[in-house]
Design a protein that fits this description.
It is built from 13 helices and 13 strands. It is α/β, with parallel strands linked by helices. The radius of gyration is 20 Å and the shape is globular.
């Protein structure tokens, strides 16, 4: 495989409703789509970085420059044995995993299309024909509105509810949710909003039999999470601080977590995501697929990822309509009444692009090579 050209597109997509976390409030997404061309075909990837450098040090504008000036030139016109070669070619670029993942996942999609196979098969997935789905619910204006949103998502069939928490919106909110929904699969995501000094406060969450507390402490910490996990009954799930398989191995060895969230962008693409998955599976640690408010392209990549065998917990992959009035793929991603997404057998990521709509929401475009 020889990549002849890389096309970058920045698109703007307003969310159906605002999404609030401890980082702030998001009302629209500016995402970069990466299209790689070879052999008369093209593959697509998505950069999952946010509009601002709050979840990580990356953001939309930085990813554009990294892709255009550093990542794309390193893979153009190189003889690649396969998409596995893309990540090593960009490894000189320190960090910037989300930008690099946009290119790397596009190469995997291209390879699958050239072979005429679905992406999930190309990455070695297929452990299940339907993936179980959960939802991530942002911080709401009131607890009553949160309860209404949860009721609506449960009625839609979703198998697991994740609520965002932060200081001042945590224990009492979880208590109210448990009182209303005593038997649902429930987890809380702190997005690094606490410190180890809050351990006694976080221990109060043990009373509400949560599936997990996601990344309660600093985005780059493993050691304090190990100290906190020793004081909690509830499993800690690590997210932001797991960027490589080596990080996952360290966290498992230190007993800093009982669960790992794998996000394609955060770890740099499918190659590293599979290594994280394998390290967790070997240690008996379950994983699940996290979401970053992706468009249909990134959502379809997440579906493929979640077919690997250790993705045994419902992830954040949900229906397109939860986020977008209209997605850039047609048909959009849909969830069955029992809260699953069925695999598709079409080559590549499996969904046709809505080219006309994509052009209408593109705010800039540039080709490299």
């Amino acid at each position: 495989m020889k990549i002849e050209r890389v096309t970058l597109r920045q698109i703007r997509m307003p969310l159906v409703r605002p999404f609030e976390t401890s980082f702030g409030r998001t009302t629209e997404r500016h995402m970069i789509l990466v299209e790689v061309h070879a052999g008369g075909a093209s593959g697509w990837g998505e950069v999952t970085a946010g509009e601002n450098p709050f979840y990580s040090e990356e953001w939309t504008a930085s990813a554009w420059l990294i892709l255009r000036d550093y990542a794309a030139p390193r893979v153009l016109n190189r003889d690649l044995a396969g998409p596995e070669d893309v990540a090593p070619l960009t490894s000189q670029i320190r960090g910037h995993h989300m930008a690099r993942a946009g290119l790397e996942t596009a190469a995997w999609d291209l390879a699958a299309r050239l072979e005429g196979v679905p992406l999930w098969k190309k990455i070695g997935g297929g452990a299940r024909t339907e993936i179980p789905c959960g939802v991530s619910i942002g911080i709401q204006p009131s607890v009553e509105e949160l309860l209404d949103v949860i009721a609506r998502e449960l009625a839609a069939g979703y198998q697991r509810i994740k609520i965002k928490i932060k200081p001042g919106w945590d224990v009492d909110v979880v208590r109210r949710v448990r009182e209303r929904f005593p038997s649902i699969k429930l987890m809380a995501d702190a997005n690094s909003a606490y410190t180890l000094a809050d351990a006694d406060h976080l221990r109060r969450l043990d009373d509400y039999y949560l599936m997990m507390i996601e990344q309660p402490l600093s985005h780059d910490d493993i050691i304090d999470h190990a100290a906190l996990q020793a004081r909690l009954q509830t499993p800690i799930c690590l997210d932001e601080c797991i960027r490589t398989a080596h990080h996952a191995e360290q966290a498992i060895r230190l007993r800093a977590c009982g669960i790992i969230n794998i996000k394609l962008g955060r770890v740099g693409g499918f190659r590293e995501a599979k290594l994280v998955h394998d390290a967790a599976q070997a240690a008996g640690v379950p994983v699940w697929c996290g979401g970053m408010l992706e468009s249909g392209v990134g959502r379809a990549h997440n579906i493929a990822l979640a077919t690997l065998p250790d993705f045994v917990l419902p992830g954040d992959v949900s229906a397109s309509k939860r986020y977008w009035e209209r997605d850039i793929i047609q048909p959009p991603v849909e969830v069955t009444p029992h809260g699953t997404i069925a695999l598709r057998d079409d080559p590549g990521f499996g969904y046709p692009l809505d080219s006309g709509f994509l052009r209408s929401i593109t705010v800039r475009e540039e080709a490299v090579g």
